[in-house]
Amino acid sequence: MHDLNPTEQRVLAAIDDAGLLEALAALVSIPSLDGTAAENEAQEYVAVLLAEQGMAVDRWEIDLPQLYAHPACSWEVPRERALGVVGTLGADRGGRSLIFNGHVDVVPAGDRRHWRSDPWQATILDGRVYGRGALDMKGGLCCAIFAARAIAAAGVRLRGRLLIQSVIGEEDGGLGTLAAILRGHTADAAIVAEPTELKVAPAQAGAHNFRLTVYGAAAHGCVREEGVSAIEKFAPLHQAILDLEHRRNERLRAADPSGLFTRYRTPNAICIGIVRAGEWASSEAEQLVAEGRYGIGIGEDPAAARAELEQAIAAAAAQDPWLRDHPPTLEWWGGRFDPASTPLDAPIVQTLAGCDQTVRGAPPTFEGMTYGADMRLLVNVAGIPTVLYGPGDVRDAHRPNESVALADLQVATRVFALTALRFCGYDEE
C-alpha cells in the first residue's frame, strides 16, 4: 500500500484479523432469523462487542407500534420485541461524521444436506468462511467494527463521529435502520457494508413485494373439465409478467446514463419465488397465490412502476373469458425497497474510492447493485449520501454454502478504517 502517512500506517497495523474472525464465528453461531429471539440475541452480542472496542453504545427497545405507523416502514415477519444498537467513536470536533451500517438478521439455511458444513458454525475452508450470514452480512458488519477498533486501539482521536449501526429486519423490509434514523443516529455520510465484490456502489435498485391471487373453480379430479384450474389460468398471467420484465428492462437500461448497471441483462428483475395452489391432489385447484419481488429502476417513481404491473395483469386477464369475469387480485405487501442513488462526485463516494485504490493498488470499480438494501432509507428518509461497499459476492448469499473470502474481509476492514480516518478527519500527532 502506498500513500499512507504514519498515523494511517499505525491504524492499519492495529487491525486484529484474528479477533475479527472470532467475532464473526460467534455471530454466525447465533441463528438470527427475522422475528426470532436470536435476532435480538445477536444484537446483544454486538452491543457488548462495540463496548469492548471502546465505543459509546446506545442499546434500546424499539417501539414497534410507533415504527409500524411510519410511512417508510415495511416488514414481513411479526415481532414481539426488537433491539436497536448503535456504537459511536469520536466526537463532533470540526470533522465530518460517518455511519457504517450492517444487519444481523439472516435468511433460513434451507436443507442442510446441501451444505458442506454446519450453516450455524463458521467454518474456514479453502480460504473462505462458510456459514449462514458470514457473507450477508455479518462479515461486513464485523469489518466495520474492527476498523473502528483499530482506530481506537491506535489511540487516534477522530474529529468527527464514527457510528456503527447494527440493525435487525433488513431482510424483510429494513425496520432496524429506520428505527436508528428516527432515534437520531444520522451523519454526513454512510456506508452500508453489503457484499459488493469490493466494488464502490453508489446506486441501489429497488424491489417491492407483491402477491397475485388467481381464482378458478373446484371440481373432482375425475371430472376436472367441469371445474377451472387456477394453475392453468395463472399461465398467461405469468407470461405477461415475463413480457413486462423484458420491456421494462430494455427501457430502463436504455435510459440509464450512469452505466452502473451495464453488466446485468435484467437489473430490474421480476421474480416469483413462491407459488401455492389447490388443497387436494384429486381436486381441480380453485385458487393460486403467487408471491414475488418487483424490480424498480433508479429514478423511477415506485407508484408508476407498480401501476405497470397492475396494468399488465389486467390486460392479460381481459384476454381470457374466465379471468375477465373472475379477475385476479394484486396486492403490494411486505418488503418495500425503493431505489436510491448518490452522485459519483459526492465526498463519501470519492473518499471511499480513493481508499479502495490505496489498499488494493488498482483503480476502483463503480457499479450499481441490483438488490434491495437499507441504503434507500439512509438516502430517501434521512437524506444521507450513502454508498454500498463490502466483502463478497451477493451471488453466494441466500443459498447453501454461503461464504466470504478471508482476503475480502481483510481488504474491506482496511478500506473502512482508512475511509473513516480520511472522511472524519483526525488530530495530527
TrEMBL record:
Cofactor(s) annotated in UniProt: Zn(2+); Co(2+)
Listed SUPFAM superfamilies: Bacterial exopeptidase dimerisation domain (SSF55031), Zn-dependent exopeptidases (SSF53187)
Origin superkingdom: Bacteria
Peptidase M20 dimerisation domain segment(s): 204-320
InterPro entries, A to Z: ArgE/DapE (IPR010182), Bact_exopeptidase_dim_dom (IPR036264), Peptidase_M20 (IPR002933), Peptidase_M20_dimer (IPR011650), Peptidase_M20A (IPR050072)
Residue stretches in coiled coil: none
An example Gene Ontology molecular-function term: hydrolase activity
Matching Pfam families: M20_dimer, Peptidase_M20
Keyword annotations: Cobalt, Hydrolase, Metal-binding, Zinc
PANTHER family assigned to the protein according to its UniProt record, in alphabetical order: ACETYLORNITHINE DEACETYLASE, PEPTIDASE M20 DIMERISATION DOMAIN-CONTAINING PROTEIN
Entry's family note: Belongs to the peptidase M20A family.
Name by which UniProt lists this protein: Acetylornithine deacetylase
Gene source species: Chloroflexus islandicus
